[in-house]
């Protein structure tokens, strides 16, 4: 073999080595019609991968997987399940105006299966009217029909391990539906009718949106209207039960129904009281530009820190817990944000855990290598009362002079957080 031939072989070998792709690399490309924001996220409980949408709605992302896994594809407020394998090259398309109805996959038969099953389950609405108004035998037949429809879809899947897992999940899901409906058997049909009607009423009251958009008087009127509608239906139900008690020789079943009436009355009262209390808490919360309400908690070593401890810097606060899935999903984004600003001493990253299990909190702080300042609040305490925190994660931003910038700041995964941080740290000394 001459030198020229050897050189050609060597160059060809090096070229092949340099262009060889990772067999575990996943590539997902897509087109989003009517996009909402710029971010696309693929995540599970342990990790997440994100990218930005181009102006024409297209995107592309690559990442490496050691083994097949379920991922949630997220855009805007919507989420849908996928099943992704090492080496997959997947194309997806979706229109956000009809999210689940329009999603299509190429290169992932399992993801297409999951999308189809979701639609079948959504059309069945097994916790809807059929749940309350259908006798158990007939309800079982409806579920069996759904099971048969899903089984037909397995013909498009070649992965036997995936099929086995999905069959187990299907059986578990159907068993859960049946067990839930079986619990209704102790109630009369009148009570089941009440449950179904009140469920419909509840859908018309979006207290979560109204609590911020309405003033105290308007919100109270809304809550009272909700309460009155529930009580009107409950009064009608009470008369029906009382009439049957008057005619019945055997009162045991009707007495059970009267117990339901009493519990329902208490539930209505608790619900209305809770929303009024929430509104009062939100209205009393410090507003933008007002002095922050201080709080003090220990770190993992027992050293106590307060919000005031970090005066002189911007303070980005994360209220979270180890048992909160959305909280954990934000951790990689928060760590990336901390890394970007680690040389900037004008920003303090402060995380406050509302875990009651201190050991679980300490374990996650260590395993996830959580940065910033980590404090333990031991449950829903002064910070959640002062800042009307009823759900987590909650992110807040406070100014260097101790005033509120936002008590509901953008999350680390959002497109807005960096702009808000940069705008408010201008002029601060980089200590």
Describe the structure.
By secondary structure, the chain is an alpha+beta fold. The chain folds into three domains: 1-107, Carboxypeptidase-like, regulatory domain (Immunoglobulin-like, Sandwich), CATH 2.60.40.1120; 201-284; 296-425, Glutaredoxin (3-Layer(aba) Sandwich). It contains 14 helices and 15 strands. The strands form four sheets. A five-stranded mixed β-sheet has the order 13-12-11-14-15, with helices on one face. Strands 4-1-7-8 form a four-stranded mixed β-sheet. 23% of the residues are buried. The model is unreliable at 3-10, 14-19 and 248-252 (pLDDT under 50).
Compact summary:
With 431 residues, this protein is an alpha+beta fold.
What's the CATH architecture of the largest domain? 3-Layer(aba) Sandwich
Helix content: 40-55%
Shape: globular
CATH topology of the largest domain: Glutaredoxin
Query: What kind of sheet is the major sheet?
Result: 5 strands, mixed
Number of domains: 3
Distance from N terminus to C terminus (CA atoms, Å) equals 67 Å
- Beta fraction: 15-25%
Counted by DSSP, the helix tally is 14
- What integer value in Å does the Rg equal? 28 Å
- How many strand segments? 15
Tell me, rounded to a whole number, the average pLDDT.
89
SSE order, as H and E?
HEEEEEEEHEHHHHHHHHEEEHEHEHEEH
Give the uncertain stretches in residue-range form.
3-10, 14-19, 248-252
Classify the secondary structure makeup into a structural class. alpha+beta
CATH superfamily of the largest domain: Glutaredoxin
The CATH first-level class of the largest domain comes to Alpha Beta
Order of strands across the widest beta sheet?
13-12-11-14-15
């Amino acid at each position: 073999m001459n030198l020229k031939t050897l050189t050609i072989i060597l160059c060809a070998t090096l070229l092949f080595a340099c262009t060889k792709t990772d067999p575990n690399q996943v590539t997902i490309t897509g087109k989003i019609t009517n996009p909402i924001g710029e971010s696309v996220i693929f995540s599970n409980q342990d990790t997440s991968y994100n990218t930005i949408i181009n102006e024409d709605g297209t995107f592309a992302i690559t990442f490496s997987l050691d083994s097949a896994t379920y991922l949630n594809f997220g855009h805007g407020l919507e989420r849908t399940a996928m099943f992704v394998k090492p080496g997959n090259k997947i194309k997806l398309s979706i229109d956000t105006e009809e999210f689940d109805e329009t999603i299509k996959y190429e290169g992932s038969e399992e993801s297409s299966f999951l999308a189809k099953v979701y639609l079948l389950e959504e059309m069945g609405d097994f916790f809807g009217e059929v749940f309350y108004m259908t006798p158990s035998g007939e309800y079982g037949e409806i579920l069996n029909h759904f099971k048969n429809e899903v089984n037909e879809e397995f013909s498009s899947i070649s992965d036997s391990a995936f099929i086995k897992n999905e069959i187990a999940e299907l059986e578990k899901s159907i068993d859960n539906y049946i067990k839930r409906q079986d619990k209704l058997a102790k109630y009369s049909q009148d009570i089941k009718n009440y449950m179904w009607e009140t469920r419909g009423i509840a859908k018309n009251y979006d207290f979560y949106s109204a609590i911020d958009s309405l003033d105290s008087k308007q919100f109270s009127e809304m809550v009272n209207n909700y309460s009155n509608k529930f009580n009107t239906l409950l009064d009608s139900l009470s008369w029906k039960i009382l009439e049957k008690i008057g005619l019945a020789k055997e009162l045991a079943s009707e007495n059970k129904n009267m117990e339901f009436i009493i519990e329902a009355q208490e539930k209505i009262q608790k619900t209305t009281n809770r929303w009024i209390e929430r509104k009062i808490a939100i209205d009393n919360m410090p507003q933008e530009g007002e002095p922050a309400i201080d709080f003090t908690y220990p770190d993992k070593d027992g050293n106590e820190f307060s919000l005031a401890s970090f005066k002189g810097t911007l303070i980005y606060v994360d209220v979270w817990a180890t048992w909160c899935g959305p909280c954990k999903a934000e951790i990689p984004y928060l760590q990336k944000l901390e890394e970007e600003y680690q040389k900037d001493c004008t920003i303090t990253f402060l995380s406050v855990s509302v875990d009651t299990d201190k050991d679980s909190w300490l374990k996650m702080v260590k395993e996830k290598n959580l940065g910033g300042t980590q404090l333990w609040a031991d449950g829903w305490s002064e910070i959640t009362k002062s800042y009307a925190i009823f759900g987590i994660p909650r992110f807040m931003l406070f100014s260097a002079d101790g005033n509120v910038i936002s008590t509901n700041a953008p999350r680390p995964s959002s497109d807005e957080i960096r702009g808000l941080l940069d705008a408010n740290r201008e002029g601060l000394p980089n200590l």
